[in-house]
Design goal:
about 375 residues; alpha/beta; Urease, subunit C, domain 1; 2 domains; about 25% strand; globular; binds zinc ion
Length: about 375
């Protein structure tokens, strides 16, 4: 393979290292083989890219999404479409996700075998799809109305069978639905009995899966925190006391603010930023309590920067937003090869207009991308690699 060199005015290689002026990234077969200042570059026989972005930064991680649907929208109707239609839409969503600067997604529930099939598609087309970790199929009780979870668990026997089914599919995560959607009924009403929820968490951890729980708050959140789940999704009605215990026990909150803001914006026409700020209140309280927070789009495709703005409105500095959505999110979701532009990582770099450590809005429009094959995937202008 030919080594490809990409120069940049400012290389922001990770959330920890100081940005490097006149930086260089050398990519070989989708991997970063060197990154650092041009002045220290060893004599690599590389082909230089004609593209020289103002800033190169690692791609973002979306910690909560689905590819079989888009939100806000009629999820059940979307899933009634023929498989080919769902797959075609998913490929379009994948492309929108990548072009918005996201290089890795954690899929938190797709019906049937779709999650495995999306992961296969991503492996076949690493330029057009983000890297994927997934929970396979989600788990819910029969009375819960959830579009993206189709393993039904009402008894202890169901729980054993359900967790076994997810584990045998090779899933990295187990996804449980512990409270209803915030749009349906009481959002903190527990969906499972306390003992069944505890059993599911125990079985999931015994099967070496990490556990993500859709949970807005209430008694189910107490069980999740006590039993040591890895991430709580949404968490809109978590109490300050619960947030404090999450901070103490290292339970991560995956914030999904944009979905509610866009839905209300479409209905009422209220300004999106004002809505993001209002709906970011639980995240603001989580930040104050010291909870680890990482952002998830929950299937708003191609507009991940909304979640970054929500974090900033919740009190995170631009540097903290960058840290939580790259290195920390990669670590928690399980992307060992993403989250920074260090040597040995997968080459997923994003070209930006200016320094993301100073300004979150640079993510609103990325100027170009380096994909894992060393190719540039331009955002707008067609730029061919060397
Ligand atoms: Zn979701």
């Amino acid at each position: 393979m030919t080594l490809v060199g990409i120069g940049t005015d400012l290389l922001v290689s990770s959330a920890i290292d100081e940005p490097i002026e006149d930086g260089v990234l050398i990519v070989d077969d989708g991997r970063i083989v060197w990154s650092g200042p041009l002045s220290e570059l060893p004599g690599f026989p590389c082909v230089w890219s004609s593209w020289h972005p103002p800033v190169l930064a690692p791609a973002l991680i979306d910690a909560h999404t689905h590819l079989s649907i888009e939100t806000p929208g009629r999820e059940f109707e979307q899933l009634e479409a023929p498989d080919a239609v769902i797959a075609t839409r998913a490929a379009r969503f994948a492309s929108e996700i990548v072009r918005s600067g996201v290089g890795g997604v954690r899929l938190l529930g797709e019906p049937g075998d779709l999650s495995t099939q999306f992961a296969d598609a991503a492996e076949h087309d690493p330029h057009g799809w983000p890297s994927i970790v997934s929970c396979g199929r989600g788990i819910r009780p029969s009375h819960a109305i959830v579009s993206v979870a189709d393993i039904v668990v009402d008894t202890e026997d169901d729980a054993r069978r359900g967790v076994e089914l997810v584990a045998s599919s090779g899933a990295d995560w187990l996804k449980l639905h512990a409270t209803p959607s915030s749009l349906r009924g009481d959002p903190i009403e527990p969906l499972f009995s306390a003992s069944l929820l505890r059993l599911l968490i125990e079985l999931g951890h015994d099967a070496k899966m990490r556990i993500a729980v859709h949970c807005h708050g209430g008694p189910a959140a107490d069980i999740c925190i006590d039993a040591g789940v890895d991430t709580i999704e949404h968490g809109r009605f978590l109490s300050d006391e619960q947030l404090k215990r999450m901070a103490d026990s290292g339970t991560t909150l995956v914030s999904t603010v944009g979905i509610g803001a866009i839905a209300r914006h479409r209905q009422s026409g209220e300004p999106l930023l004002a809505l993001l700020s209002e709906l970011a209140e639980p995240v603001r309280r989580a930040k104050r309590a010291g909870v680890q927070v990482i952002p998830g789009s929950d299937a708003i495709h191609g507009r991940f920067s909304l979640e970054l703005h929500a974090l900033e409105l919740a009190g995170f500095t631009p540097k903290e937003v960058f840290t939580q959505s790259t290195r920390v999110a990669a670590d928690i979701c399980g992307f060992a090869s993403l989250g920074s532009l260090e040597i040995g990582k997968v080459a997923r770099a994003v070209g930006l207009r200016s320094n993301p450590l100073d300004d979150v809005s640079v993510w609103d429009r990325v100027v170009g991308l380096v994909g894992p094959g060393g190719l540039l995937i331009p955002h707008s202008d067609a730029v061919a690699m060397a």
